[in-house]
């Protein structure tokens, strides 16, 4: 076998390992990103423990096919970047926040689809995932809801005690 074919097989294995290690993979169209925009985007992804990477579409298609994942053939064309994430929503959220902060990115960085929980998610689904708060925020909200009745009860008891004295 040629060295080129062997190198491609190694890259396909690397992609498969990253897909298996990630809870979500976001496919995004990128076009005409400046170096500064790309660097800022990579930094945001690194802070969230996500990896922003560009691979050849044919190699990613082969990796998905070897894993038995279907539905991405239509999205694996043109300039495509891949975001490998340790959770389900961070990659989508970072892309949405970046576009919101810098409207010039709206045409340059467009989510195509995602692979979340072993399933294909279309572009609309990616937008919905971006709207879901992070795990930490959801836990904090839940704890606030659980704490509120107890805190209100304590305030009522304190008010009754203050009235009697």
What's the topology here?
Blueprint lengths: L2 H19 L2 E7 L4 H13 L3 E4 L2 H10 L13 E6 L4 H12 L7 E8 L2 E3 L1 H9 L3 H30 L1
Antiparallel strand pairs: 1-3, 1-4, 2-3, 4-5
Q: Which CATH class of the largest domain applies here?
A: Alpha Beta
% residues in beta strands: 15-25%
As an assembly, this protein is: single chain
CA-CA gap between termini: 91 Å
Any idea what the radius of gyration is? 22 Å
The neighbouring-strand order within the major sheet is 2-3-1-4-5
Tally of separate helices: 6
- Output mean pLDDT: 91
What is the count of distinct domains? 2
* Outline: elongated
> Which structural class best describes the helix and strand composition?
alpha+beta
Helicity level: 55-70%
Number of E-type strands = 5
Stretches with pLDDT under 50, minimum 5 residues: none
Q: What summary fits the major beta sheet?
A: 5 strands, antiparallel
CATH superfamily assignment of the largest domain?
A: Ribosomal protein L10, N-terminal RNA-binding domain
CATH architecture group name of the largest domain: 2-Layer Sandwich
Short description:
With 165 residues, this protein is α+β, with helices and mostly antiparallel strands.
